[in-house]
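Ex. 9. Protein: Prephenate dehydratase.
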Amino acid sequence: MKRIALLPAGSVSDEAAKQFFGDKEVEWEHHRLIADVFQATERGECHYSVIPIENTIEGSVSLHMDWIVHEVDLPMQAEWVYPSVQNLIGRSSEMEGREGGIDYSRISKVISHPVAMAQCHQFLRTYMPHAEKEHTGSTAEAVRYVKEHPGEGIVAIGTGRAAANNGLDVLSKGITDHDNNYTRFMLVGPEPYTVRQSDRTKTSILITLPEDYPGALHQVLSAFAWRRINLSRIESRPTKKKLGNYYFYIEIEMSLDTVLLPAALQEIEAIGCQIRILGCYPSFSYQQLL
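Predicted structure tokens for Prephenate dehydratase:
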């Protein structure tokens, strides 16, 4: 039986992981902090960690990407997407107005994970511009905090499952700024994931350019372009070694088992670039998991 590290029960990570693994026999190990999720697998206590890495509205989850790059050596083994439906959660008995409905003026503080909070910016600005905003390690942790602090005018942004788990109410449902809000999750760990099969395979790499080499990035992209290799994502992040020194995180719509991709990487290395392979893995759409 595989043991899976992930964020707390009732979080979007929890819902997404259970959707991905389906009825497979797995054992869940929930952690409050993403650092603990990573380290549980790095220490060998779990087979895999479930990591949210990108969101439709907020883009890359930089903190989690930095952990993958700088803190642990856990290969990417699979990715999938899951809809992020965020709700305003609290006690309706505390927030009801005189004429029924929610009296938002009674809310003094809104707490949630920073990414979930950012997904609901327009709703918060419209209905609760007066409320204090506070970040937590996960949406599930925020909902649990509301449960433990009744009568203080505090609400959380989180999932309906988290509300039900903690005996709280969904005050407003689906409060994200856009309806097509999806989060992309990565399964990281030392073992290849072979349970599900997908017709789409991706490869993630890090490229660090040589210093004082004008046009190096252009040559890197050209190595992919003339071979008609599609890049689905490219992002620059600081190496944390020197000011102005960046690496490029690139996702490639191709397997390392092909002829073209290894040849492109060899061409890139020939101009002095450093390449680190983060993983070659199956990619699943939400529809594939239904």
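Check your answer against this statement. The domain at 2-83+181-188 is CATH 3.40.190.10 (D-Maltodextrin-Binding Protein; domain 2).
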